[in-house]
Amino acid sequence: MDRAQAFRPATSVDERPCVTLSPWRVYETDGGERYFVGHCAETRAGRVSSTIVSYDAQTRTGVTCSGRRYVLSRHPGFDLTAEYLWTLWSFRSGIGKARDVSERYLGPVDGLTSSNGCEPAA
After folding, report:
1. DSSP string covering the chain, please?
2. Which of 63, 71, 73, 100 has its CB surrounded by the most CB atoms within 10 Å?
C-alpha cells in the first residue's frame, strides 16, 4: 500500500453504515476515549474508528460518534495497516499514550459473520 494513500477519510456513514472488523483491537487513550482499530472485511483495508459511544457485548457491535456501527468478528488480533493508521492518526491528533483494552470487548463469537447487520462486500 502506498503510505500516502493510507490515511484518507472514510466513506460516509450513509454509504457504509456498518463495518465488520477482523482482526481488531480497541485502544483507550489517557483521556478515556476508545477507538476500534482493525481490518475492514468489506473494503479489505485498515481502519480507525471515531470515538466509541456504545457497545453491545452480546452482538459485539459498537456505535461510534459518527453513527457508524462496527461488528467485531472473531478474536482480537493485529493488522499491520490498521496499526500503521492508528499510529499515524493518534500522532496527528495529539493523542499521547493509549493502551490496548481489547479483552474488555470479548463476548460471544459463534455465528458472528458480516451478516450480523453489515452487508457483504460487493
Report:
1. --HHHHS-PPPPTTT--EEEEEEEEEEEETTS-EEEEEEETTTTEEEE-S-EEEEETTTTEEEETTS-EEEE-SSB---HHHHHHHHHHHHHTT---EEE-GGGG----TT-STTTTSPPP-
2. 71
